[in-house]
Amino acid sequence: MAGLSRLVLANFRNISSADIALCCSVNLFYGVNGSGKTSVLEAVHMLATGRSFRSRQHQPVIQADAEQLAVFGRLKDGLTIGVEKRRSGPGGRIRINREAAESSSQLAALLPLQLINSDSFSALEGGPGVRRRLLDWTVFHVEQSYLHALKDYQIALRQRNALLRRGKIGSDQLDIWDGRMVIAAVTLDRLREEVFERLGTVTRELLLDLPVSPLQQVSIRYRRGWKQGVDLGEALQASRDADMAVGHTRVGPHRADMVFTVDSQPAQSILSRGQQKMLVCALRTAMARVVSNSRKPPVFLIDDLPAELDDAHQVIFARWVSDCAGQVLVTGIERESTCRPWLSLAAPWNKPSVFHVEHGRISAELDPAPNNEWSE
Ligand SMILES: Nc1ncnc2c1ncn2[C@@H]1O[C@H](COP(=O)(O)OP(=O)(O)OP(=O)(O)O)[C@@H](O)[C@H]1O
C-alpha cells in the first residue's frame, strides 16, 4: 500500500488550518460549492508535485492576507514530505524527512498521483502534449532513469532551436545538437514504446469491461514523432531547411503522441462525451495499473465524480480504481451520491472515511473506521 496517513494544511486557499488522518482506502470530502473540497485535492497535488493543478502561480493559492502556505504529509511508511510557498519569491521550499530536497521530481517519485477532474477529460481533444505527458508520467514511474534522458533531450532540443532562430549557422553547429538529440531519443523512444505496449493492452482490456459500445472498437497507436523506418539523425537532416524557415525543430520525440481512433476516425469525432470520459478513465486506470505492477500504487484524486459520470459508470470506475490505487481522495457535493459508487466494492474500499467540509473547516464524521488499519 502507498499513500498518506496524515495531511496537514496551513493557509491553503480558504483552509486556514487542517490536520487530517487519512485512511488507506477511500477518503471522501463532501460539502457545498466553494467549501474547500477541491482545495484538499489541490494540497495533495502540491505535496506530490510542488505545484497546483489550478494555477500556474502559487500566489493565488496562498490564503488572502497570509504570507505563506504550508502542506505537510506523512506517508504510510513513516516518511514525511512538506512544501512551503511564500507570497514573495519564487519556487518555495520542499522537504523530505525535514531535509531540504532539490527538486519536485523527488516528491513525484515518493507519491505517484492520478488526478481525475473535469480537465482530465479533455485528453482526447487537446493537443499531443496532453497525451504525451500521460505517457511520460507512466514511463517516469516505471523507469525513473527516463527523466535523465528526457532532460538531456530537452537541453539539446532547446540549443538546436536557439541556433535555428539565430539564422546564419554552420551545419557543423547543428550536427553537435542533432547528435545529442539522437542519443537521448533512442532511450526515450525505446522506453515510451515498451510502456505504451502495456498501457494500450490494459486500456483495451478495461474497455471490454463496459457495455457494448464503440469503445470496444477503439484502437490506440503510439506515434513516436518522426517517420517510421527512418533514423532520427536522417529525419533531422531532411528537415533542416524547413526547420530553419520556421525557427524550430519539427521532428523528434517532442512530437510524440498516443493516437486514439475508432474505425480509422479520430475517437473524439465518434465517441459521445460520456464515452470519451470513460475512455480517459480507462487510460488513467491503465496508467495506474502499469505503475503499480512495477512500483508503488498511485493515489487517486477524484474531483466530483457524480458531476462527470452516470451511476453505472461511476461504479465501474470505482471498481477499476480499487484494483490499482494505493489510496483514494474523492470529493462531491452530496454525501450519499458521492459515497454510493464505493459501497458496492469489497472491503476496505466499501467503507470510506467521510469528511464534511464547511467554510474551509474539515471535520471527520466518524471515528477511524476498521479500514484505517494500514497494512503492508
Ligand atoms: N487565496 C485564497 N484565500 C482565501 N480563499 C480562497 C483563496 N482562493 C480561493 N479561495 C476560496 O476558497 C474556496 C475554495 O474552494 P474549492 O474550489 O476548494 O471549493 P469546492 O468545495 O471544491 O467547490 P466547488 O464544489 O464549487 O468546486 C472558495 O470559496 C474560494 O473562493
UniProtKB/TrEMBL annotation:
Pfam family, one: SMC_N
Annotated coiled-coil segments of the chain: none
UniProt key word Signal: no
Ranges of residues in domain RecF/RecN/SMC N-terminal: 4-336
Entry keywords, A to Z: ATP-binding, Cytoplasm, DNA damage, DNA repair, DNA replication, DNA-binding, Nucleotide-binding, SOS response
Alphabetized InterPro entries for the sequence: DNA-binding_RecF, DNA-binding_RecF_CS, P-loop_NTPase, RecF/RecN/SMC_N, RecF_2
A molecular function (GO) term: single-stranded DNA binding
GO cellular component annotations of the record: cytoplasm
Superkingdom in the source lineage: Bacteria
Positions annotated to bind ATP: G31, V32, N33, G34, S35, G36, K37, T38
One GO-annotated biological process of the protein: SOS response
SUPFAM superfamilies: P-loop containing nucleoside triphosphate hydrolases
Compartment(s) of residence: Cytoplasm
Record carries keyword DNA-binding: yes
Predominant localisation class: cytoplasm
Family assignment from sequence similarity: Belongs to the RecF family.
Function: The RecF protein is involved in DNA metabolism; it is required for DNA replication and normal SOS inducibility. RecF binds preferentially to single-stranded, linear DNA. It also seems to bind ATP.
Protein name: DNA replication and repair protein RecF
Gene: recF
